[in-house]
Design goal:
This protein is mainly alpha-helical. The chain contains 13 helices and two strands, in the order ααααααααββααααα.
Amino acid sequence: MKYANALFFLGIFCSLVCQPVKAYDKTGHRIVAQIASMNLTPKARTEIEKLLGRNGLVNYANWPDEIRSNPAYNYTTRWHFYNIDKDLTTDELNLEYSRALSTKNNLLFAIDSLTSTLKKNKKDTLALRFLVHLIGDLHQPLHLGKEADLGGNRIRIKWFNDSINLHMLWDTYMVNMEQLSYTEYATYLSDAGNYKQLRSESTDVRSAFKRSYLLSRRVYNYPYDGRNAYGYYYNFSPELKELLTRGGCLLANILNAIYA
């Protein structure tokens, strides 16, 4: 009996700790980094591999999250988001973008500052690692969410059988709906009919900010009551996939310009 009980509790323990970790924090950021890698110029690829090693963009895509518990990096905590409680028009977003750069210590300021740093010192690996990650954060709409609910972290929802928060839905569960590895997902996106169009469109951080913010308002206003998760995913999956693609292409454009 004792042996049977031991096996029973061991089985429960394994079922808890051996579950696959669901994380946009890894998969989503790696997808953005992989798409960027696919669009690097030979010159940029060579220079970046000297700094980060082969496949370095992907390998370090999640590093800024992994070191957040290290007190030495406390100054980077607010680099990962920029909360906006107000509903802004497209014209007002231009002023908001300028305000973000001037107030500092936020996602938009960090991207602008790190880009400038790399232009001055192309061997600054710390700036490069953070830039790769933060371009991914910029293309997750709840990183431009509301201060009042901490970017959706305080909004509880039901997703199939899981009780999660709205931020986690977009950080994790939406990407994992396709059940693809980051390489498979990046290939899947590159095979999409709109890939060439998205890759060829000239874009910048300001445009990406507007696009993600406007989607965040759609997310907040969507009447999801936890009873139709498939319908929710069907409604937002085109925007999700476009954001991942645009994120990778924007990162590639920035790095190609720096390391040209």
